[in-house]
Amino acid sequence: MTQPKKLFIKTYGCQMNVYDSERMAEAMGGQGYVQTDSPDDADMILLNTCHIREKAAEKVYSELGRYKVLKAERPDLKIGVAGCVAQAEGEEIMRRQPMVDLVVGPQSYHRLPELEAKARSGEKALDTDFPEEDKFERLQARPKAKRGPTAFLTVQEGCDKFCAFCVVPYTRGAEVSRPADRVLTEARDLVERGVREITLLGQNVNAYHGHDRGLAGLIRELAAIDGLERIRFTTSHPNDMDDALIAAHGDCEKLMPYLHLPVQAGSDRILKRMNRHHTAEAYLKLVERLRAARPDLHLSGDFIVGFPEETEADFQATLDLVEAVQYGSAFSFKYSERPGTPAAERPQVPEAEKDDRLQRLQALLVRQQRALQDAMIGREVGVLFEKAGRRPGQMVGKSDYLHAVYVESDGLARGDLRRVRIVESSPNSLRGVLA
Ligand code: 5AD
Ligand code: SF4
């Protein structure tokens, strides 16, 4: 028997890339590759990259720099760049790093086996098309191997919103939804393999239209699958949060009480300049409706500080909005100029201002996160156990609200979903006992 070749994939960026990396590994499995967790013994290295902020993109080049030595030692080693940097800078990558053999954009990774064969024959292989065919359908069926209790499932890709700061509409292309029957088949397959929680993914997941009743319709059909216990979805745009989805948060038991609903900023002037098509008040009203449907809903958000022309008063409006919402968790970023996006052409906020605003915003968000976490003490929550903790007999899982929860108890296994009483709160996790 021939030795399997080894594939090392390093994944950057969002959860959609995590899902894509899994699918790429599966596609390469058909070519005789098994995954390895170190680049040192790999026959092929694939970087699945992110282009959302400058720092994310720069990481790719410094990582590639590190592989120079490996490539010098082992000329047979093939190096590939996938994902959004590949899409945005394909040919430039090959120019800047001639040791790169293969570049594949996020819409073309079903062609990876052919590209790998081309690279093996000594040619450079580049594919950053937006092909007509559907990559998900071109991929082989997922292997039947057992897997962990949680999984991502991409249902929608791309975005038509064109927020003025964002590269996604350019790197991932126009909004496309996968048909509901395909998603349901993949979900049933995941459940057969041990998955109990599925997170539906899409850059604009609540714009999903692969089901005649939208994302809410898909969620309700998923909820009917025996053995699937929990459903989540991310990331959502406020304007696509329709009545059916709000209602699902109220009465669909398997839909978890956690929602990532980015607002980006709290000033109407800045929201307009960001091309968000909603006001701060509209967002707050939406939050109110969601909480009316599901009072214990934990909200999470994304924020950008130092967007071009943001004044101190604009920034204060962001702080006010955060105060009004009370987030369970949040991600905040300094605005990063992305070539080709409208905001990159505008007068920029000085870096020192951005740093200062980011610090103030994060201090507030951390306080809120801690407060909501501390409020869990004494409460009972569902926890889906995912892996062993550091201490003997300890297991760690995620609460319904996505907190990491540690429990010490004999007989707990991976994949168990149990009621847990929270007894302690630390900066990034909770501790509980079985209820
Ligand atoms: N600069 C800073 N943050 C950005 N994001 C998207 N584009 C940029 C940018 N140019 C943030 C947004 C988005 C999250 C995924 O990344 O907050 O919701
Ligand atoms: Fe980017 Fe999200 Fe705006 Fe689409 S909705 S342009 S993915 S920030």
UniProtKB/TrEMBL annotation:
Its EC number is 2.8.4.3. It is found in: Cytoplasm. CDD domains: Radical_SAM. One of its GO terms (cellular component) is cytosol. [4Fe-4S] cluster 2 binds at residues 159, 163, 166. It holds the Pfam family UPF0004. It catalyses: 2-thio-N(6)-dimethylallyladenosine(37) in tRNA + S-adenosyl-L-methionine = 2-methylsulfanyl-N(6)-dimethylallyladenosine(37) in tRNA + S-adenosyl-L-homocysteine + H(+); N(6)-dimethylallyladenosine(37) in tRNA + (sulfur carrier)-SH + AH2 + S-adenosyl-L-methionine = 2-thio-N(6)-dimethylallyladenosine(37) in tRNA + (sulfur carrier)-H + 5'-deoxyadenosine + L-methionine + A + H(+); N(6)-dimethylallyladenosine(37) in tRNA + (sulfur carrier)-SH + AH2 + 2 S-adenosyl-L-methionine = 2-methylsulfanyl-N(6)-dimethylallyladenosine(37) in tRNA + (sulfur carrier)-H + 5'-deoxyadenosine + L-methionine + A + S-adenosyl-L-homocysteine + 2 H(+). Its cofactor is [4Fe-4S] cluster. Residues 374-435 form the TRAM domain. SMART domains: Elp3. InterPro entries: Elp3/MiaA/NifB-like_rSAM, Methylthiotransferase, Methylthiotransferase_CS, Methylthiotransferase_N, Methylthiotransferase_N_sf, MiaB_methiolase, rSAM, rSAM_horseshoe. [4Fe-4S] cluster 1 binds at residues 14, 50, 84. Binds 2 [4Fe-4S] clusters. One cluster is coordinated with 3 cysteines and an exchangeable S-adenosyl-L-methionine. Residues 5-121 form the MTTase N-terminal domain. Keywords: 4Fe-4S, Cytoplasm, Iron, Iron-sulfur, Metal-binding, S-adenosyl-L-methionine, Transferase, tRNA processing. Belongs to the methylthiotransferase family. MiaB subfamily. Monomer. NCBIfam families: miaB-methiolase, MiaB/RimO family radical SAM methylthiotransferase. Catalyzes the methylthiolation of N6-(dimethylallyl)adenosine (i(6)A), leading to the formation of 2-methylthio-N6-(dimethylallyl)adenosine (ms(2)i(6)A) at position 37 in tRNAs that read codons beginning with uridine. This is tRNA-2-methylthio-N(6)-dimethylallyladenosine synthase. The lineage of its organism: Bacteria, Pseudomonadati, Pseudomonadota, Alphaproteobacteria, Rhodobacterales.
